[in-house]
Specification:
By secondary structure, the protein is α+β, with helices and mostly antiparallel strands. Helices cover 26% and strands 24% of the residues. Strand 6 and strand 7 form a beta hairpin.
Length: 462
């Protein structure tokens, strides 16, 4: 048992954790070795990715009395064991073969599970629960020696009871095994079983061979996302100390103002993600004060499931994402209107096809699984339709459900503010002075379009 005080400027609380345990599949599962796809095992995905959901102890008429009195830790632990019968590769361990090829040994060893209690209520987190979260390292504890990619538990889950009867479900998963859609699919399966289902409504599909490299591999598309960019020591140096993590809410008024700022024909054919990503890329580039001649890029993470003919099967939980990239110079991006950036974003996303995905898989094999280029890059990911805010363990849907942080990518997270407006929250991670310039850029734009933004002032300095 561990007891740790955790604090932020606005909130201090104590988290008491039980000893981490392994939760194994409830029944015996196949012992076999399963290869990951050549999209799965690329360098960019060899990371652990954290998610968090906050739940009320609802007095909802739809939640029966016995469920309100149930222990969420016990209910969820049992549901995980039953869900792992269907998702048994998650209970295994990854190893690496020749050519850095990853595979999962389906050993049934289990996923890491932590039971915890916090002396804090959900209300104390405020009326806008969004990243950055106070004391995240205590709500999703990094068990020593558990965070590697090889020979480690693939999933870590912590369920923390709150003093009000609510709870927090936090999950960290090895990204090589699943993307956001796949992780949401697993969490929703646990939720369905926790609510009494005998099996998930969407059966998990492995079939990683659908995204193997071709034989022989051949790169048939341009992939700027994997360019080797040499950092010019004479160029702009972004300080990595005094980094600040902050979220911004964009509702109907902000999105409407953005649409009015670009040509009508472009507004009709671009999505909210497109225009908001373009705008934030431009604002961040201005804030970082790059030399006008320096090359800058935006990467839009695209779900490619429906780019295939036929589409990938429902239930496929492996990585089916692409990283299409647009390039320009800092000077052009900052000096030209927002519409210029929107055109670049929409054009980049259009390149993702079935052939593009196969070309990525081939490139991985040919070039030794290179990493995605993040030099002078704005990385954006839309998780508004991933289903991360849907998991219901019997206490209703979460107050917040989505990425636990936005330090690498700017996630577009579905959110409803205290006025009841539906929009999206986007976490931004920048050096302190650059963040001040970023906020000024945002506020000046919206005020000039007669929109008074109400950006959250809470920040988290790392």
């Amino acid at each position: 048992m561990g007891s740790v005080s955790a604090s932020s400027k606005s909130l201090t609380f104590r988290v008491t954790r039980q000893k981490p345990e392994l939760v194994r599949p409830a029944k015996s599962t196949p012992r076999e070795c399963k290869l990951l796809s050549d999209i799965d095992d690329q360098e960019a995905l060899r990371i652990q990715i954290p998610f968090i959901q906050f739940y009320r102890n609802r007095d909802d008429p739809g939640i029966n009395e016995s469920r309100r009195r149930s222990d969420p830790v016990k209910v969820i632990r049992e549901a995980i064991a039953k869900a792992l019968v269907f998702y048994y590769p998650l209970a295994g361990r990854l190893r690496e073969g020749p050519g850095r090829k990853l595979m999962v040994e389906c050993t049934g060893e289990g996923v890491l599970f932590i039971e915890a209690d916090a002396d804090v209520t959900l209300e104390q987190f405020g009326d806008a629960i969004q990243p950055p979260f106070p004391c995240l390292e205590e709500l999703l504890y990094d068990v020593p020696h558990s965070g590697g990619i090889l020979h480690c538990p693939i999933v870590l889950i912590q369920v923390t009871r709150l003093r009000c009867g609510g709870f927090i479900f936090a999950l960290r998963m090895n990204h090589t095994i699943a993307d956001g859609v796949g992780i949401a699919q697993f969490m929703n399966a646990v939720g369905e079983i926790a609510r009494g289902a005998s099996a998930p409504s969407i059966q998990p599909v492995w079939q990683r061979e659908l995204l193997y490299a071709r034989d022989p591999p051949r790169v048939t598309c341009t992939h700027h996302e994997y360019d080797e960019v040499v950092v010019d020591t004479k160029g702009t140096i972004v300080p990595l100390d005094d980094m600040v993590h902050r979220s911004f809410f964009f509702g109907p008024a902000e999105v409407s103002a953005l649409r009015k700022s670009i040509p009508l024909d472009l507004s009709h054919k671009c999505s909210t993600f497109d225009i908001l990503t373009a705008f934030l890329w431009r604002c961040q580039t201005i804030a970082l004060q790059y030399d006008p001649n320096e090359e800058v890029r935006v990467i839009c993470i695209v779900n490619a499931r429906f780019k295939f003919n036929p589409p990938l099967p429902q239930g496929y939980y492996g990585n089916a994402i692409a990283y299409p990239t647009a390039l320009t110079t800092a000077g052009q991006l900052c000096e030209k209107p927002v519409g210029y950036a929107v055109e670049l974003v929409t054009k980049a996303k259009r390149v993702v096809t079935e052939d593009y995905m196969k070309s990525v898989a081939d490139l991985m094999v040919i070039k030794g699984r290179p990493r995605v280029t993040l030099v002078r890059t704005y990385l954006a990911s839309d998780v508004t339709r991933a289903g991360l805010n849907e998991a219901d363990f019997g206490w209703g849907k979460p107050v917040y459900g989505g990425p636990a942080e936005g330090t690498v990518a700017s996630f577009h997270i579905p959110f409803k503010n205290k006025k009841g407006e539906t929009g999206r929250v986007v976490p931004i991670f920048l050096p302190g002075l650059a963040l001040d310039r970023f906020v000024n850029e945002l506020e000046n734009f919206f005020l000039s379009h007669n929109v008074r933004p109400h950006f959250r002032r809470t920040t988290s300095r790392l």
